Amino acid sequence: MHDSTDAIIYVGKALSLTKRVHQYFQPSHDEGIKKKQMVSHISRFEYIVTDSELEALVLENNLIKEHKPKYNTLLRDDKTYPYIKVTVREDYPRILFSRQSEKDGSRYFGPFTSGTDVRSTIDLANKLFSLRSCNKKFPEAFGKDRPCLNFHMGQCLGVCTGNISKEQYRKNVDAALDFLAGNVKPVLNDLTEKMNRAASLMEFEKAATYRDLIDSVNACTTKQKITDTDGEDKDIVAMAKSGEDAVIQVFFIRGGRMIGRDHFFMNIRLDDEPSELLLAFLMQFYSGTPFIPKELYIQEELPEGNILEEYLSKKRGNKVRIRTPKRGQKEKLVELAKKNARMVLTQDKERIRREEGRTIGAMKELAELLSLEGISRMEAYDISHISGFATVGSMVVFEKGKPLRSDYRKFKLRTIEGPDDYASMREVLTRRFTHGMEERENSEEDYGKFSRFPDIIMMDGGKGQVNIALEVLSELGLDIPVAGMVKDDHHRTRGLYFNNIEIPIERTSEGFKLITRLQDEAHRFAIEYHRSLRSKAQVHSFLDDIPGIGPKRRKALMKRFISADALREASIEDIAETESMNIEAARAVYDYLHQNEKGQ
Questions:
Q1: Nearest residue to 170 via CA among 132, 143, 144
Q2: Residue 75: strand pairing partners
Q3: Does the chain have fewer CB atoms within 10 Å around its N or its C terminus?
Q4: In terms of domains, do 208 and 273 share one?
């Protein structure tokens, strides 16, 4: 369903679209307040035919996630969970931290809810089984570098020395896999025996080391609560709602162990049914997560549970069951999840309201102050330099009151020499909006990020900066509101300059605080970029000025020749023998170092 601006406001599906759509316009049919409001905004319909209900369900979900229609139930969270990855296909496998579970032949454990716990477990496994943590490729890297500190501390077998066979190393990897799968008893028995032996030999420091490792293993295993004895992977999902707020609580159970929990907030309407909300959550959440458990336990029977089961089974590769337990341990787990959801909803409701006041509420406040219809996207710009040296510009973006760092941009000034902030700002704005207009002209489908224009531009300054922006927009034929963030004599923001008027703003208001955050972020981003350019300018080697000598060759030359004098005394043939060098590059280095001798 599209509104008058052609925006998609609702995505739905039905076996008979004729009957379903007809219902919306029947006076006797009550779909609730949300649907009545939606119907009043419908301008036109667009439809797509599929071959099955399953295809319709998947398509509906994809369209909702892509377009985020106003009248659909939307999942607000977008989280990824950490995994422990063991690269078993490598000759000398490693244990790694991963945010994705891919079909790459590696062995994955998880997902887990705590990244800190995952990293601690990886460190512990590496210490226990003396596995490598470097990213070198073996056997190619055998003997090329000295062993690292882990080898000398006895925490790595020293694969890089080439003195350990694949078979020996693989035994330790297999033991680590067994440990990560939950079989910790052999490890504890071995560590206890070593601790007792060291203590009997009065090697107390070594005994203390084994004791600490035993404590770490116990801490790692006691974090996982046993909840079932069947050893299956399952998720427990329950919901609590109050008015237009809802929280979904998920307990993650892997191999019979509860590895953690998490909660999710959802945008809902007063008349949304719990079963519909659960269906929307399950579809959106599990279509985006790399791991789907064998069983899902939920609190409500789903209207299309069999179709969702079919979809999840295909995605997992084997049967997935969605159950609604009525008694026993499973029902108690669902009730526990529901209780936690209610607790989160109660505790976080006020925090959510405060957060929305800081963000969306602050945007509405600014829109009212400036008499604008609405503000969603704000852009702010700043210039940074030291007496005109290495002048740079920054562009920061706030969307719905929060930083949108993926859309930040940095500008290295090309045409400006000396400390001219007005001219610098003109170049930055001209390049930014010219690039955006070119993207709009050249892209038939998806626009690039420059083509997303703001609802308002916030300039760091008063009348002068605002006029520069308005002149650039006028030259480019663009109509975007521009406001200046005016400072007082103490360099503190005191108001907004808009439409040739300075508008005072209450310092305690959320709108003022939002402006301050935007201004500070623009300053920070510009200063960091300027600082990085200064650092690069200060760290410079004469080798950087020689054509054909990149970072790899420069590093190799500096490693082989301990000084510039030693390199100058070398012949072309000696230089060419350096790693990554060839005769042409060697001649370029030689000519550069001896150019004064040739009268150049």
A1: 132
A2: 266
A3: C
A4: no
